[in-house]
Amino acid sequence: MTTYKTVQGDTWDGIAYLLYGQAELMTLLLAANPEHTQTVLFSGGIILNVPDKPVDASQTLPPWRREE
Fold first, then answer.
1. Cα dist. 32→14, 44, 63, 64 in Å?
2. Which CATH number fits the domain that encloses residue 33?
3. Residue 14: inside a domain, yes or no?
4. What is the spatial distance between Cα 16 and Cα 29, in angstroms, rounded to a whole number?
5. The pLDDT value given to residue 55
6. How far from 63 is each of 7, 25, 54, CA to CA, in Å?
């Protein structure tokens, strides 16, 4: 797990997109930072815990088991 220092105006979905490439993964950030779940717009300088991005299971399966 790493950390991220917020910039004034950051949002959960924006941070998730920046760090993971997918805004939908903001739920990972919310779960790792329960003390900030009521925050919509961050002020600058808040340190957030950033969990590792989950491995896409379809990429770890052999080719004949992947859904195309």
1. 16, 19, 33, 35
2. 3.10.350
3. yes
4. 7
5. 78
6. 41, 26, 20
